[in-house]
Amino acid sequence: MEIMYSSTRNAQNRVTASRAILNGLAEDGGLYVPEQIPALDIPLSRLAGMTYQETAFEVMRRFLTDFTEEELKRCISCAYDSKFDTEEIAPIHEADGNYYLELFHGATIAFKDMALSILPYLMTTAAAKNQEKHEIVILTATSGDTGKAALAGFADVPGTRIIVFYPKDGVSRVQEKQMVTQKGENTCVIGIKGNFDDAQTGVKKLFADEDLKQELAEAGFCFSSANSINIGRLVPQIVYYVYAYGRLLAAGKIAEGEKINVVVPTGNFGNILAAFYAKNMGLPIERLICASNENKVLFDFFQTGVYDRKREFKLTSSPSMDILISSNLERLIYRIAGNDAEKNAAFMAALSQTGEYRITDEMKKVLTDFGGGYATEEQTAEEIRHLYESDGYVIDTHTAVASNVYRRYREETGDSHAAVIASTASPYKFARSVMTAIDSAYDSMDDFALIDEMSVKSGVSVPKAIEEIRTAPVLHDQVIEIENMKSAVKCFLRMER
Questions:
Q1: pLDDT tens digits along 59-112
Q2: Is residue 392 within 8 Å of 398, Cβ to Cβ?
Q3: Neighbour-count burial of 312, counting CB atoms closer than 10 A to its CB (0-12 exposed, 13-18 middle, 19+ buried)
Q4: Predicted pLDDT of residue 464
Q5: 95 — phi, psi (to 5°)?
Q6: Residue 261: which of 369, 408, 391 has the closest Cα?
Q7: According to the model, what pLDDT value does residue 1 have?
Q8: What pLDDT digit, counting tens, does each position of 405-447 carry?
Q9: Nearest 10 degrees: Cα torsion 305, 311, 317, 323
Q10: What value, to the nearest 5°, has the Cα angle with vertex 148 and ends 378 and 170?
């Protein structure tokens, strides 16, 4: 059965999976969604014996139906290889009665590697399938991790160029250093004077700029996206939840068919949406716990049914979640609106024009799969210290948000389901916040001295991704005002000087 993809803002805008990946964002500004969620119609017991690569094929072939078996297996083989520091790709660590799904064993030590390792292969395969003659320009906004993972994935990939915008003062020092030291003749990294939402809004405006699109075409270029708005990012994220279930089965931690809870620290909503899709495929998931930091726009939405971005933007120790406009939530809104593109478009227009929208009571009733909470900065630090002192396990700030939210949820509800907590980044990416949470005395140390001390504390070697940037030269130092994003893109593509 072929699955087509339609825009969340115009159901008549229907394309194949490969074209959806190439386009990134629909022409009407909507996001591509599968017209139906395919069933995971294999015995769950089989998952226990499957490798990550085998699991990826079983999940992705059901969504990307216009890719051949050979094409898909080649993409998977090229993506999930020695770039990861463990053959498991996404191992599970048991601590404090929960199962931490470590999604940070790729080249840039963050969960974005799980999808961005394969997206370049999916995209270049899709380009060939669709006889795309233009050079693909990947245009991406990042709150910290997507940028480096996308840069690493697309660096020197023939037929592509990549431009990453990031909030100059809104990422950790390690995150910034990873990006600005990126090699590759086809790469461009630009800091903006603003926050992530400003960067993301600016990128969406560039995608919607018809004059710019025409200029690009005349110059031999076309835009696509590596953000989680691209369905080629979202589908690979479904894989690791299915894989985690298989790992727990194999380890005898759950019985076949037993339901689990999934806990995700999220700002842009893509990672937890992937878990929602996995549940809708038939994976036995009981509750989806959406964990927010002090920018708790998603927590408030699930509590009230009102999405309101009109609030103070807070810079926290979990910067990849410092987001007030959660782009991927649109895919959920579309679904709970009964796949009604017109209704969804009205909500998105209200968000753009007034800064908020309110879903109906009927829509709110469909959200019973979701629970949630938020963690303050103090609670985040407390969780890092708690896990280190109780289990000797060192986690990053984003994982700590999820862990703290779930610990309090479990105490309040008595929910005894096994819980998979998405551990989204290596603690080495946020060494200062992590180490000072363990002991405030560390705050006086240099960042890289802290990293070395973390290795001693955790018993985990400093990742290659960190060692590489200790002395790497800065190759990208451009910082611009938000209104100059269009000009910066054209300058990098040598369309203007």
A1: 999 999 999 999 999 999 999 999 999 999 999 999 999 999 999 999 999 999
A2: no
A3: exposed
A4: 93
A5: -155, 140
A6: 369
A7: 83
A8: 999 999 999 999 999 999 999 999 999 999 999 999 999 998 8
A9: 60
A10: 40
Angle of CA points 409, 415, 418, to nearest 5°: 100
DSSP three-state, residue 137: strand
* pLDDT above 70 for 497: no
CA dist 20 and 431 (Å) reads: 38
Which distant-in-sequence residues (6+ apart) come within 8 Å of 432 by Cβ? 172, 173, 442, 443, 447, 450
In the predicted structure, residue 53 carries a pLDDT above the cut 70: yes
Prediction pTM value: 0.93
pLDDT digits (tens, 9 = 90+) for 246-287: 999 999 999 999 999 999 999 899 999 999 999 999 999 999
HSE-up (13 A, CA, CB side) for residue 394: 25
**Of 157, 218, 228, 169, which is closest to residue 195 (Cα–Cα)?**
169
Query: How far apart are alpha carbons 451 and 457 in whole angstroms?
Result: 10
Q: Give the Å distances, CA to CA, from 346 to 80, 250, 333, 349, 353.
A: 40, 46, 11, 5, 10
From first CA to last CA, the distance across the chain in angstroms is 49
Band of the pLDDT at 146, cuts 50, 70, 90? Answer: confident
Identify the bridge partners of residue 161 per DSSP, sorted by sequence position: 137
DSSP state of 307: E
Q: At a CB cut-off of 8 Å and minimum separation 6, what does 236 contact?
A: 56, 60, 114, 115, 118, 119
Place of tokens 């999220």: 266
Which of 267, 331, 262 is closest to 299 using CA atoms?
267
DSSP conformational letter for 173: H
HSE toward the beta carbon, residue 40, CA cutoff 13 A: 27
* Token reading at 59: 């999940």
Which pairs count as long-range contacts for 342-346, CB under 8 Å and 24+ apart, including other chains?
344/8, 344/9, 344/30, 345/8, 345/9, 345/10, 345/28, 345/30
Instruction: Look at residues 320, 296, 319 and name the one whose alpha carbon lies nearest to residue 309.
Output: 296
Count the neighbouring beta carbons within 10 Å of the beta carbon of residue 41. 9
Q: What's the rounded Cα separation, in Å, for the pair 257 and 190?
A: 47
Contact 296, 266 (CB under 8 A): no
The DSSP code for 106 is: S
Q: Please write the tens of the pLDDT for every residue from 367-412.
A: 999 999 999 999 999 999 999 999 999 999 999 999 999 999 999 9
CB atoms within 10 A of CB 490: 16
Which residues lie below 8 Å from residue 158, measured CB to CB, with a gap of 6+?
A: 124
335 contact partners, CB below 8 Å, separation of at least 6:
33
- Alpha carbon distance 174, 328 (integer Å): 26
Taking the mean position of all CA atoms in its chain, how far away is CA 342?
A: 27
The type of residue at 103 is L
DSSP state of 484: G
